[in-house]
Amino acid sequence: MLDGQKKMSTWFYALLSLPATAMGFGLSVQISALSWILSTKYGLSIGDIGIVWAAGPIAGIIAQPIVGAVSDKLWFMGGRRRPWIIFGGLLTGMMLLALPNLEIVQKMLGMEGAAGLLPIAVCVALTLDLSINVSFNPTRSLVADCTTQEQRSKGYTWMQTVSGTCGVLAYLIAVLWGNETLIYVGMFIAVLFTILPIFFIEEPRELNAEVADDAEKDASTAVATSQGSVLKDMNNAVLPLYGFLVYGIYVIVAKLFIPADVIASMPHYLGLNAVELACVIIEIVALLLVLANTLKVKEDMHEFQKILLAHSFTWWGVQTMNVYMFFYVANVISNIDASSAQTVNSMAFLVRDLIGAILPVLVLNVIAAKKGMAHTHTGAILAMAIGYGIIYFCGANIYTFFVALVIVGIGWASLVSLPFAIMSSRVDQSKMGLYMGIFNLSVVLPQLVASFKMGEIIDAAEDKSIIFAICAICLLISGVLWIFVKEKK
After folding, report:
1. N or C: which end of the chain has fewer CB within 10 A?
2. Which of 292, 294, 149, 151 is nearest to 218 (CA)?
3. If you count DSSP H runs as helices and E runs as strands, how many of each does the chain have, helices first?
4. Is residue 321 a contact partner of residue 467, using CB atoms and an 8 Å limit?
5. Contacts of 48 (CB under 8 A, 6+ apart)
C-alpha cells in the first residue's frame, strides 16, 4: 500500500478519483457530441436521437446492479472493482472511436442508407453507455471501499472536483477545436485514466468490518442483515421507482414489438395514453407509500428509499437538459445561427461543469461539514430549479442564459458528489456495489422518460422553451422530496 493511501493524503484522494474521472469525461463527450453528431452529420430527427439516448439507460438498468453485485463477491486481478474498471475503460475507448466513424462501420456490415444508420447508432451508443455504466459503478464503489464514513464526503467531493475539472476541459476542447477532436481526446483519457491509476490503489479485501463494528452499537445499520434476503432488500429499495420501472418496461416493449398505430389507437387522457397514465398513478402511489413508510421498513432502508425517490426527479430534469438543450440553443436564443449553435451548446455545458468542478471541495464540503450533507444538497437542488426557471422565462437573451447556467451549476456540483456519500452511509458496506447499482436505477429509469416521452412533447412543441419548463418542475419536486431525507448522524 502506498504511503499516501495509508495517510489518506490529498493526492491519494485525487488518484482515487481518476477512474471515475475517465468515465465522467466519456459522459461529457456523450453530452456534448452525441446529439450534435447524430443531428448534423448523420441527419437523425429529434425522435430518433431520443431513441439513441434511451439505449444507454436501458443498458444501465441491467448492467449496474449485476456488475455491482458480482464485483462485491468477485476477487480477480488483485481487486474486486479493478477488472470491471479496466474492461469498461477499454470498451469506452473503442466505442468513442466508432462514434464519428459510423459510416465505416456501416460499410463493414454491408448496410446502406439512412435506415441502416439508426440501428448502428443505437448499437454504438448502447455499447458506449453500457461500458460507462460497467465502469461507473465500480469507480464510485471504489471510493466508498477505500474510505471510512467520516472520510466519504471528502472522497466524493474530491471525485467531483477532479472529474468536473476534466469535464470543463472536455467542453473547452469542444469549443476551441470541435466535437470530433473532443471524441478522440475522450478515447485516450478513457483508456489511460482507468488502466494506469488502478494499479496504484490497493483495495481492501474485507468490506464488512466497519458495518460489524457499527452493528454492535446500532443493529439498524446493517440494512441487508436486518431486512432479510437480497431480493427482499431490492424489492423494498426499488419501491420508489415502480412508476418509472413500469414505464421503462412498457417503452422498451412498445418500441421493439408494438406497431406505432396500435399505440396511437390507445385511449388518451391528459395527453397520455392509458399505460402512461397508469405509470403516473403508480409513481404517485409509490411516492406516498415511501413518505408514509407504509411497509414499515427499518430506518436505513426507509431513508435509502427517500433518497432514490428524490434523486429520480433530479435526473428526469437534468437528462432533459442533457439531451435536448442543443435544440433550445438553436431555436430559442436570439441571434444564434446554425453554425454557432454547437459552440454555444458546448460553452453552456462548460459553464455548468466549471461551477461543478469549483464548488465541491472549496464550498460544498465545507458547508456540509457544518450544516450536513442532506441539507446542503437540498439547497443546491432548489437553486438548480431556480436556474432552470430563469432560463425558461428569460433564456432567449444569451447573457441571462449563461448567468442562469451558473446557478444551475450549483446543483450540478452537488448532484454528482454528495448523493453518493449520503446514500453510502445507509447501506451494508459489504454490498456497496449492489446498492450502488440499485441507486443508479434512480438515474437511468428517469432518463428513459426524458429520452422518450419528453422527446415526444418537445418535438411536438413549437416553443422549445418547454425544455427548461420541464427541467424546472422536475428539480423543484426533487428539492421538496430531499427535504424529507434525514442524514445519518
Report:
1. C
2. 149
3. 24, 2
4. yes
5. 38, 118
Whole-Å CA distances, 295 to 186, 300, 310: 45, 13, 18
Residue 195 is inside which H or E element, if any? helix 179-198
End-to-end CA distance of the chain: 31
For residue 35, the SS3 value is helix
Structural contact between residues 135 and 320, judged by C-beta atoms closer than 8 angstroms: no
- pLDDT tens-digit map of 383-406: 999 999 999 999 999 999 999 999
Cell 455545458 sits on residue: 349
Dist CA 88 CA 243 (whole Å): 30
Cell (9 digits) for 111: 448496410
Residue 269: in which H helix or E strand, if any? strand 268-269
Measuring CA to CA, which residue among 139, 122, 129, 106 is closest to residue 31? 129
| Spatial distance between the Cα atoms of 280 and 307, rounded to a whole number of angstroms | 19
How far apart, in Å, are the Cα atoms of 404 and each of 3, 392, 447, 472?
43, 10, 23, 12
Nearby residues of 257 by Cβ (< 8 Å), 6 or more positions away: none
Beta strands per DSSP E along 347-482 = none
Tens of pLDDT, residue by residue over 94-133, are 988 888 888 888 888 777 666 667 778 778 877 887 788 7
436 vs 1, 330, 380, 442, 467, CA distance in Å? 25, 37, 22, 10, 29
| Main-chain phi, psi angles of 13, to 5 degrees | -60, -40
Give me 403's grid cell: 448567468
Residue 268 three-state SS: strand
At position 291, the amino acid (one-letter code) is: L
Residues 6 or more apart whose CB falls under 8 angstroms from that of 375 comprise: 487
Alpha carbons 137 and 70: distance in angstroms, whole number? 11
